[in-house]
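Quick note —
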Amino acid sequence: MMMQYARQYEQTQVVTSSGVQLVVLLYDAAIQSMEMARREIQAKNVREKARHLGRAIAIVGELNSVLNLDQGGEIARSLRRLYNYMLMELVEANARNNEHKLDGPLRCLVTLREAWREVASQQPSHLVETR
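Predicted structure written out below.
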């Protein structure tokens, strides 16, 4: 029952979030998935490790795929390189059950999340859509 309420809360957050806030939510989800994958690697639970890393890979892959290199310029190109690096490390962590391969991507995502949180905090509240 509690999980159902948590899922409903997450869905409400996504529906009512601005684009910037949505990026922060995606970073949060990717970080959480990587942390859970690390625990599963340590527990030698291959199936759950793969599930959590698959989710993190899907999130980072989606963030990478929506970059507009024409409009985003050098920042978008830098993010593309960073996302590609993270994807390679996540795939390696999954293939080799190597929790240390998660260190770099986690550091990158935590840093990016904090930067995007700062941007989100500076957005006027009327930019948040409600449905």
